[in-house]
Give the backbone structure.
Amino acid sequence: MTEPLLTVRNLSVTYPGDDGDVRAVRNVSFTLGRERLGIVGESGSGKSTTGRAIMGLVGHPGRIAADELRLGDTDLRSLSESGFRRLRGKRIAMVLQDPKYSLDPVMTVGQQIAETHRTHLRSNKRDAKRAALEMLEAVQIRDPERVYTMYPHQVSGGMGQRVMIAMMLIAGPEILIADEPTSALDVTVQTQVLSIMDELVRSRGMGLLLVSHNLHLVSSFCDRVLVMYAGQVLETCEAGKLSEAKHPYTRGLLAALPQLGHRRPELPQLQRDPAWMADLA
Amino acid sequence: MIGLDNVTIAYGTGTRAVIAVHDFTLSVPEGEAVGLVGESGSGKSTVLRAVAGLIPHAKGEIALAGVRVDRRRTTAQRKTTQMVFQDPYGSLHPNQTVDQILALPVAIHRLDRGEARIVQALTEVGLGREHRYRYPHQLSGGQRQRVAIARALILEPRILLLDEPTSALDVSVQAEILNLLARLRRERGLTLLMVSHDLAVIAHLCERIGVMSAGRLVEITTATAMAKSQVTHDYTRELLRSNAGFDRS
């Protein structure tokens, strides 16, 4: 593999709780190259928190600790808030679940995309608009001129998510973190949005971190998969070989999925082993 | 058990009316489970709400247990048809304990042996005595959905309507709820009408699957035929492709 774009070693995120500290992420290590890396896990497994920690979005009173957290040659551990502000959108971008909530409702979608361009590339209004229109076209929006002037409530969910992708990629980041990017969309629209994202990320040589609870989607879309449980990475495997996963948790999750064409009277229920909670450090 | 004959459902009236469902015809015999799939806005939940009597239908006939019904229902008619909603966070009263949530339908329908019914309903959905006096926020998502199912079953309905009952839940919890629904259906001979966007979930519980698109039932097929891709409509084919995951080629 080539030089990793992102290196994470022993990342932990801790929140103070009533009964002592809650460790949402515990000693997570991975590297991300020019590839599609998936993080799967159930709610509360720490998969989204891992993505947010990389973006510097774990706010007070959460604490981040890591032996190494590096984007290229930038050490993210010592980066200030203003340093992160320059970084976000420019070098790391993030697509969230629901475009209804992540787009500004009182700004046209075109202005929002152009704003990213102006902020990070210090371009003038005309160049920013031209770049935004090109970007809308790149995410396969048929009539960019018209969509540019539309407000978020006027676009459908699938179109909104494509607008988000356009906004995130316009400044040419090295890494895209996509946190459940298609969970709010219809299944038939999901695959369209994913293939657009895949195409752009690949042609620009970016790294993609896809956070999802959908095992099926991750195994068919990504190159590698990290399986998280209780804040830890239980297993890393090649996405195509997820069905051959070794850890009992991964196997349990896969077995619990209903399958079309393979009807069982009873779905095997996941038996949680307390040993999975033990620190792997 | 459920008969829908040329049902048309509209929101609003006059020139501003939006027709959400066009000429919908479907018959579900007693004890069968039928699933409806389709994209958002295709009208699948609207059909369910009309069967439940939550919204009126403009044209056509809805019959439940052989009796033609309208939006106005008698208490006895309401008792036969109960519904479980998608979001267990939104469908339970936040300021009422599980006990109060289950006692209310018993009181409305003036049923006897309230105490025994509540205990039995909780046992049937796999909740213990310790859950009875808790508030919804003190329960997990799966436990909340169990309470919602218990609330529907406490009236001993013959028809259970399920609107995306597991899509807000994790995979492991989804398996538990699906197993619970399958068992209750077997034990009580329930007739199910279920809506979901997940083909595998529908095929797991239902024998027949109806595919909706733009307010119309475009195809009705069996779970077995669906699994073998023996479908005729283009939209169904697209749905099958999408359900198979992302295609790298």
Notes: Chain A touches chain B through 36 residues (CB under 8 Å). The two ends of chain A are 25 Å apart (CA to CA). The longest strand of chain A covers residues 20-32. The CA atoms of residues 8 and 69 of chain A lie 5 Å apart.
